[in-house]
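CGNR zinc finger domain-containing protein
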Amino acid sequence: MHLNPYGADVVNLAAELANRRPASAEELADRCRAAGLVLERPVAPQDLDRALEALTAWEEVVDATDEEARADLLNRMLAAATAHPRLTDHAGTGWHLHYRDDRQPLGPLLHALIAVGTALHLTGRGMHRLRRCAVTECATIFADTSRTGRQRYCSQRCANRDAVRRHRARSTA
Ligand SMILES: [Zn+2]
Ligand SMILES: [Zn+2]
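Tokens:
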């Protein structure tokens, strides 16, 4: 099994890791496994460093204020981490495309996976569909995979919180 970069799996994993950054290479590996990623090599401390670097670059993509800037930043991530596309059946579950070299350590693998997965998500669903929660003090990152593409909050809890606040602001005005 592998993460489907055409689905929402990869951007959701990136957001999950960026919102709560892993503290060790082991934690990183565990959370990637829990998301469905098959690790073909043992993890090393430098995998954590490389993954955190990738997440920092990715947060700049999230915080880009217009589509041009967002595309530029993401192109930089793609240029730094991806290889020419190749067909692979490494897990024996069917042929699919990889945009990275085979048998990469987890750090560079994540960098490539996040760059490609985010590029596919944004070009496939809409360039605006990656953002932080509209509740200022929340700032949680999420990928908008909603039908309408107008999701503003990371969770129902934040949506309710903001609705209550707006209601209060109206009634005291
Ligand atoms: Zn694969
Ligand atoms: Zn929120």
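The chain has six helices and four strands.
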